[in-house]
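Researcher: Following up on the earlier apo prediction. This time include the ligand. It's magnesium ion, with the SMILES given after the sequence.
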Amino acid sequence: MTAITRANQCKVESVMETNSPKRKLRSSSVQRQQSPVSTPVNWKSPRRCLNSSPKSPPEVNTEHVKTAKEALHISTAPTTIMCREDEQNKIFNFCKASVEQEKAGSLYVCGCPGTGKSLSMEKVKDQLAAWAAQSGLQLPDILSINCTSLANTSDIFTKIMGETQPKKKRNGSLTPLQHLRRLYSQKAESSCMKMKLIIADELDYLITKDKAVLHDLFMLTTFPFSRCILIGIANAIDLADRFLPRLQALNCKPQVVTYRAYSKEQILKILQQRLTGLPFVVFHSQALELCARKVAAVSGDMRKALCVCRNAIELLEAEIKASSKEQNHDDACDTPAPPELVKRSESQIVRLDHMAVALSKTFKSPAVETIQSLPQHQQIILCSVVKLVRGGKKDTTIGELNKSYMDICKSTLIPPVGSLELSNMFTVLNDQGLLKLGQSRDNKMRRVLLKVDEADVTFALQGIRFFRNCLAVN
Ligand SMILES: Nc1ncnc2c1ncn2[C@@H]1O[C@H](COP(=O)(O)OP(=O)(O)O)[C@@H](O)[C@H]1O
Ligand SMILES: [Mg+2]
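Model: Understood. Below is the ligand-bound prediction.
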């Protein structure tokens, strides 16, 4: 995590810069406490130089918002793809070997959506072009097909055929598939042809009942004079096993490269990489962590993580606009702004609560809804468990939990319930499947296991300020 040092904190601006010097000073002290994520550089916005009265409302710096959202847009490709080095190397080496040996063959790339398959394929193409130029080898013709764009599944052969041989040379009575088969079966016809690299993305769309198209497609690489190097990219992990038994029999089963779902650490790393170049602070580090944790727990889909982060920025943007309007109104009425409003406009970076709302718009799990509808003391218990098991600890004990519950009640001035009632609440949470209580003769030593995702609890309780403070990582 990029921590911001005191020395360079003064160079860092929040994503929504205010042009009031007083506010900016306060804002940076808030940022310092909260260790937001950013790489500070010496950068000055022209807006900072503008003179304005200290009373003027915070101004949304639309340029910052735009830049931050662009950096997090899914269509903004990173210069290097982090966390996919192995997979990318495997694909590149497969292509390189096929080109060097002029050998037909197939590769099956699979993994859940948003795991970087298409993105790394684009990089492999660039890598191949650079390698071919450097080694003086002829690059194969590259045909990239997104299978979702095909009206009929068998149109894929028309596409391949169209690129392979001009129409006028074709035998009219043969289908494109038949033509390709004939072409790759005869030495004389294929020997003068360049190798062809076919990248078929979103291959799942070609799955028909009998899986014939997929089968025929991969079979093209097995003909004796085939010039086809095929890379099929799909979400389905077991497709290769299901649709290619015959290829296996021919010993031509495609190599498989699997993209695993991104872990919390990987999502965090990728988000931070995207934000590294920005000369202002966008996210509170805990907000970014919550996003990574939740997305990793649900799907590990980077597309979702980026989308949630952008939504969180939009929430901040809307909040600042609303608070600025209210402040204008208050100024007009000459009444001082309520402390809550002033505080909000000071820390103009995406906080945990913005992120929690953005996440809830994307994923609302039954567990989250259950937690949100629990009575307050049961929520405090869950909050205590999360605090106790955080950092990789598997479980806690009733004794520890009692103590943590009392501490929270004390710090938030909420009168605690009696020990019998507390014990009943543990049982209720156990019955609801949110906790699991172990057995022990000594009640205090009974093990307590959190049965829902830690992120779900944090996420469900973020909307309530005292839970937010309570769950904040110190
Ligand atoms: N390792 C990564 N580094 C940076 N951005 C990534 C990474 N992996 C995925 N992304 C982002 O997520 C988006 C979805 O990735 P993509 O390759 O299209 O997923 P898939 O093809 O596996 O469904 C990409 O457009 C990119 O913006
Ligand atoms: Mg894709």
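Model: The beta strands are 13-14, 105-111, 141-146, 196-201, 228-234, 255-259, 280-281, 396-397, 435-437, 447-450.
Researcher: Noted. I'll compare it with the apo version next.
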